[in-house]
Design brief:
31% strand; seven-stranded mixed beta sheet; Purple Acid Phosphatase, chain A, domain 2; 460 residues
Length: 460
């Protein structure tokens, strides 16, 4: 039996409303299985919960070790962690090897604290496990440069790891294949990719569109249970004496606390981390005299407030923010760190941009103005399209250089109009959430931000 999970996003225990999900339920399920077994995870420990982001994935990693999982791949969410934090995860829970065969540091060296492969034991057999992170299934083996790492050579590194596992006596080989959440891996990708490798017995992937196993040549490809609300249970039928996989049955099991219960030891592990996080998120950062809703008709007072904070912190002429940066508004009265994390769940950083007035107007037109909030600017829309933009002192001056503050989401991608129009830009390395927190630290309380920033006419 192989139990597989992935993209947990920092989820630790069962949802209070539904009673579903969490490591404590998974451990009870795992321990109840009497057949030879092992547990594997495809990473993704930091993104979806404030606790996961705050504690850099450490709570989830501690839970992996407490099950224990036989091995875990590093997922795409985890690559937002700098190497020092990823190394801490690997060292603090050394029970579960962290794998990443095709991950390199900026120095062109492989991280010494991660492994390309691991050997596990189950049912009297040696099982080899390796892990890959595939940035673009449409363009395999294309290098991808990340802020702290580089992904490349997935075919080359997979072949090296598979051969090393065979030499180490692995009788069964399992590949954990993490796919970039912004991309899609169709079945043909797996068939083409695997055809170029030495034989792999089983691929487990976190590709969400894959709902059931299929054969790619002699290899079984199966989905993991995602989000830690479900686990995949893969029952392998092996040839004797060779040990090749000649059959696989698949079941997606809901992690139902009512059905399986929750492991007391795991709950203690979770409680330790949860208590520290709760104390942190309860800290008061400031006061709002009025609530700032995420949406109020055609306005977003919460986004206007964030734009004002960016502009004030960066000391720029203007600030622009996409409404997609926010997930919730802010309440009236005391505002806590937890409120900031709920309102601004993304880890976007603030970028300084220099741009001429005419280029700024073209860049704004190339975005979706109705999905923006601004500070220090007024956008005049007609039928949803930008008609003109003005600064605080009237129409934008074509040749004048304006200094902007924007989240990095507005300058990412080669086709981005802000990036292509800018004279220069620099990432501050300070998160938008930190900048809004700084605003609160500079002033005891805030009123509702001034409106009148987006003026719409026509049929919109």
């Amino acid at each position: 039996m192989i139990f597989a999970t992935g993209r947990g996003g920092g989820t630790l225990n069962a949802d209070k409303a539904s009673g579903a999900g969490g490591f404590a339920v998974f451990k009870r399920l795992y321990d109840s299985e009497k057949k030879p077994k092992l547990a594997l995870d495809l990473g993704g420990w930091t993104a979806a919960t404030p606790e996961g982001r705050l504690q850099r994935g450490r709570p989830a990693a501690a839970c992996l070790a407490a099950v224990p999982y036989a091995a875990a791949g590093v997922g795409f969410d985890d690559l937002s962690l700098p190497p020092v934090d990823l190394q801490r995860l690997a060292e603090e829970q050394a029970v579960t090897p962290l794998l990443a065969a095709n991950l390199y540091l900026k120095s062109n060296k492989k991280p010494p604290f991660l492994r390309s492969y691991a050997l596990a034991q189950a049912g009297g057999r040696k099982i080899g496990v390796l892990s890959l992170a595939v940035n673009s299934p449409a363009k395999p083996n294309t290098p991808k440069h990340l802020p702290n790492y580089r992904l490349e050579k997935e075919s080359y590194e997979a072949e090296r790891a598979i051969r090393a596992l065979k030499e180490a006596g692995a009788q069964l080989t399992v590949l954990l294949l993490a796919v970039n959440p912004k991309e899609k891996a169709a079945p043909d990708y797996f068939k083409t990719f695997l055809a170029k490798l030495p034989r792999v017995d089983l691929v487990i992937t976190d590709e969400p569109t894959l709902k059931k196993p299929f054969r790619a040549g002699k290899t079984w490809v199966a989905p993991a249970g995602l989000g830690l609300t479900h686990a995949a249970r893969l029952t392998l039928t092996l040839e004797s004496p060779g040990g090749r996989v000649n059959g696989l049955s698949f079941k997606r099991i809901e992690l139902d606390a009512g059905k399986y219960g929750e492991d007391p030891g795991m709950l203690k592990v979770i409680a330790g981390y949860r208590g520290a996080a709760s104390a942190h998120f309860a800290k008061k950062v400031g006061v709002l005299k009025a609530p700032l809703p995420l949406r109020e008709g055609n306005l977003s007072p919460a986004a206007d407030f964030a734009a004002d904070c960016m502009r004030r912190w960066a000391r720029t002429n203007a600030a622009i923010i996409g409404l997609s940066e926010l997930a919730a508004g802010l309440p009236a009265g005391p505002v806590t760190l937890g409120d900031l994390h709920s309102a601004l769940p993304l880890d976007s950083s603030v970028v300084f941009v220099k741009i001429r007035g005419d280029d700024l107007e073209r860049a704004l037109a190339g975005l979706t103005p109705a999905e923006l909030s601004v500070s220090g600017l007024r956008l005049f829309l007609r039928d949803g399209a930008l008609e003109r933009a003005e600064g605080e002192n009237g129409p934008l001056t074509p040749g004048k250089v304006y200094h902007l503050a924007v989240p990095d989401s507005l300058v990412s991608g080669r086709e981005n109009p802000v990036l292509s129009s800018a004279m220069e830009f620099a990432n501050s390395k300070r998160s938008l959430r930190e900048v809004v927190g700084w605003c609160f630290s500079r002033q005891s309380s805030f009123a509702r931000p001034a409106g009148g920033r987006i003026i719409k006419a026509g049929n919109d």
